[in-house]
Design a protein that fits this description.
The chain is α/β, with parallel strands linked by helices. The protein is about 45% helix and about 20% strand. The termini are far apart.
């Protein structure tokens, strides 16, 4: 009889726990695609950390719509094919309501058809190629968004800064022919630089994965180029800068896009000094002080790839805001809320979406490389 009573009590408790267990499991699933391995791993790990930090903060504050956010992360290994597989798995198997990342334009573009077919929004952290949010016909991709400015604007910024701010009107370019990001940024720089009175004396290419750039650099050294434009990603730029200085190119000024990373100092060393880089944020911006302190406390390391981290962090908060405004984790309603974003104050900027799912009127920041850091030089909006 005693055993029966205990069994009855346990059965009652178990029955009471069933709805609570179901409620606890009723999370809002959010996906993230980022490069934890491969050439972009330094960028991708910073993004993974920053999104995790944001989600933990949101959950600690009560979650969204009274529910906790469950983050599901896949490593795309810096490869388009793995990005496609991750997008399909997140949308179809994990049934997430939206996806954050990846940062690379080519990877984002590769996954776009999967994303639009699945009707699950994808928010790019730093994919700046126009085709991330529009297709080849110019039609807006309905489920693709980004938080960063675009390559046409970034190319114009580089051209304006070189020609008007530095007063250097003779340039060379060394770009990655296998990268959509690199090709696009080069193209937009070329268009704008001519309009600002600049001339490109040498336009050299290489293929991603190359490690020896001396042949191209020797061709560039034989010209009177005053600036070397590097519209590239990852360690390539650091190797180019290092080898250029080793070849005796002491006076040429290096200017790159928004792929600056502080890991580059480990490769190029002092050759990085006084190079200039377009950025979305500046690490010495006082509004970011708390973010960097919290990041260091949580992960016990400095936030070296600050650009990726800050924009990924803001993507998480932007998505949480969209889910709140949608009043649901329904992917279509979330898409509509993302598209309707207006005057949303985030950590690095206040954003409003345009009709092509891009943020309107964001200032660009120019960083100068000094003493192992990318430091704020000036904000710029080309005329």
């Amino acid at each position: 009889m005693k055993f029966t009573k205990i069994g009855f009590v346990l059965l009652c408790v178990a029955c009471m726990l069933v709805p609570f267990a179901a409620e606890a499991a009723d999370t809002i699933k959010v996906g993230q695609i980022t490069a934890l391995t491969g050439d972009h791993a330094a960028y991708g790990q910073a993004e993974a950390d920053a999104v995790r930090m944001a989600i933990d903060e949101i959950n600690a504050a009560g979650g969204v719509l009274g529910r906790q956010i469950e983050l599901i992360v896949y490593d795309n290994k810096t490869r388009p094919e793995d990005t496609v597989n991750a997008a399909r798995r997140l949308a179809e198997q994990d049934q997430v309501c939206a996806i954050i990342g990846p940062n690379g334009s080519g990877m984002h573009i590769a996954a776009a058809p999967i994303i639009d077919a699945a009707k699950v929004s994808q928010i790019g952290t730093l994919p700046t190629n126009p085709l991330v949010t529009i297709d080849e016909s110019g039609k807006t991709r309905p489920y693709n968004f980004r938080i960063c400015f675009l390559d046409p604007y970034q190319g114009q910024v580089i051209a304006y800064f070189a020609a008007k701010e530095l007063e250097k009107t003779k340039a060379a370019i060394l770009y990655d022919v296998s990268s959509e990001y690199s090709q696009g940024l080069r193209e937009f720089f070329l268009e704008s630089y001519k309009n600002y009175g600049g001339t490109v004396l040498r336009d050299e290419g290489y293929r991603g994965g190359d490690i020896d750039f001396r042949a191209q650099l020797t061709q560039i050294a034989d010209t009177d180029a005053e600036v070397l434009v590097l519209p590239n990603l990852g360690k390539d730029m650091a190797l180019i800068i290092k080898q250029a200085r080793e070849l005796g190119m002491k006076d040429i000024i290096f200017i790159g896009g928004d792929a600056y990373g502080e890991f580059m100092w480990e490769i190029a060393g002092d050759a990085m000094e006084d190079s200039y880089w377009v950025s979305h944020v500046a690490p010495d911006d006082e509004t970011l002080t708390k973010f960097f302190a919290d990041y260091k406390a949580k992960f016990e390391k400095e936030c070296s790839e600050f650009m990726n981290a800050v924009l990924a962090y803001d993507c998480a908060y932007w998505l949480a805001d969209a889910i709140t405004r949608a009043g649901s984790d329904d992917p279509v309603k979330i898409r509509d809320a993302l598209a309707d974003t207006k005057d949303l104050k985030l950590l690095h900027a206040t954003i409003t979406m345009d009709e092509q799912h891009n943020p309107k009127d964001k200032d660009a920041v120019i960083l100068v490389a000094k003493d192992n850091l990318g430091r704020f030089f000036k904000k710029i909006k080309p005329q």
